Amino acid sequence: MAILMFIIMNLAVMASIYLSIFIIEIIFHVRLDPQTISGLAILSVIVGSSGSIISLLLSKWLAKISMGVRVIETPTTEAEKWLVNTVAKLAERAGVPMPEVGVFDGPPNAFATGPSKSNSLVAVSTSLFDMMDTKEIEGVIAHEINHIKNGDMITMTIVQGVLNALVFFISRLIANIVAPKDEEGNVNPFAYIAISFALEIVLSIFATMIAMWFSRYREYKADAGAVRIDGPEGIYYALAKLGQIPKEQVALPAEMKAFGIVGFLGELFASHPPVEKRLENIKRVARELGYNV
């Protein structure tokens, strides 16, 4: 299934790139020559943003398939009724439309995804119910609801698309300048490809650092939002518990890490800040709001 989704995603991205180029060249009569600044810039935007946009549009479907999420349409247990009612209550407090609610079998974690505020999903792992009380789970859900409220899925897509476009543009611009040329000024295609590829690898490292910095920033915002709509106790003690679990036991798959409640990696490339810093941020926001912490 993972291979099938990978193939579908890549076919969708390639189709969107070729369709965009076709529309620009045939309908708008704009020639996309990558040897010119304008042509390269337009091509960079198309290539850089296509994957991010396709991922966003398919995010709910991909999450359901890859994580095995079971959407709760009609609650059948008390736990499901509580979960749906809690999501509805917190969504109303946050001022966002009611998202789809789902559960999945996996490590103690939760995530929010979806292409827009009105078309979103909040999913909670069944193991979260085994290790937390209802107030702590409510804090986790409040955090995920704030990802939806802040439009984090969309802003992350924009950031990633801009960074991808810049990496594509800069690497090929530099390659075009430094690659050997023949007597007629034509760039050696093999050198151009090799230099472009090497620069993409290097620049992608820096682009990833920027994207992960933004991801950590939005985690702090989602924690603060959880305090505002649900108080500090739930999210604080939930994170404290999750911070004590070995990282391999709470990690989500790579494609979902940025939208979970916790994540781990070296700090510069981590999608989430260290739990200790998040707890300090929660206490600071709680004091500002008048809570006795």
Descriptive keywords:
2 domains, alpha+beta, 66% helix, Peptidase_M48, Zincin-like, EC 3.4.24.-, 7% strand, 293 residues, four-stranded mixed beta sheet, 4 strands, elongated, 11 helices
Describe this structure in words.
It is built from eleven helices and four strands. Strands 1-2-4-3 form a four-stranded mixed sheet, sandwiched between helices. The relative contact order is 0.11. α6 (134-149) crosses α9 and α8 packs across α9. It is elongated. The longest helix is centred in the C-terminal third of the chain and has 42 residues, at 189-230. Helix content is 66%, strand content 7%. One of its GO terms (biological process) is proteolysis.
